[in-house]
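Re: the 295-residue chain
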Amino acid sequence: MYVEDLGQIVEGYMVTMNTRGIPEGMKGKDKIIFGNIHQIYDWHKDYLLKQLEKCLEGPDLLAELFIKHERRLHMYVVYCQNKPKSEHIVSEFIDTYFEELKQELGHRLQLNDLLIKPVQRIMKYQLLLKDFLKYYSKAGKDTEQLEKAVDVMCFVPKRCNDMMNVGRLQGFEGKLTSQGKLLQQNTFWVIEQAGGILARARERRIFLFEQIVILSETLERRRGPYAAPTYAFKSSIKVSSLGLEPCVDNDPCKFALISRGAERGTIRYVLQAATPEIAQAWVTDINHILETQRD
């Protein structure tokens, strides 16, 4: 069913658009709409589907399959990184050009319903492996390989989700791909303190990269049920100018980031996380970055 859905995109929409042409306003953007879906389709159709069918005979093979192809599954991360740009273009033409194509192709689902399938699929693989792990644990079987496979399939969807969110960040002047790995991203209540003046607490989506911390504002969801929130860039702190207070007001949910030598002087950002665990994960990662920098 999944391969058929991908086929509706590749052999339906993509082929038809090539033969009948695209609207003027879409020229130069059509490649962005589909990203690397052709690559995902070919790999599943020609290889993975057959391998998954073999795993019905022996579920032990399933874990090996996902461990072996961890690098290949990175194609989903690439797809997800492109997804926000794709959504934006599709939403402009969904009721006009793409509706005409849908009718012409006789499809039941709209294009945006089909384009979300790879994102949903990567989660389904994770759930499938977790179910097998639960079953093997109860049966007292060796779970080492399955545990490894679950780790792989927890990491890949997390990376996919991270890249989709990064792709929705607007207004950052620098190059995100030059900021190192994305380590954390969460929503915090933030109080900004500059020159002794305290601003009121504001909700901010914050991204922690190896080279920079980016603070952004969540914009309202727009354009129907498929639209995810976008983030407007507000400020950033380069790791070379970053200081950390691991705990504020003896509150395990609060810590502070210090931006030194900024144009506005030293700025202190007090961050309040939703849980102590989130705060601790951030403090641990920031400490690690700062230690690496000192070495």
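The chain has two domains: 1-167, 176-294.
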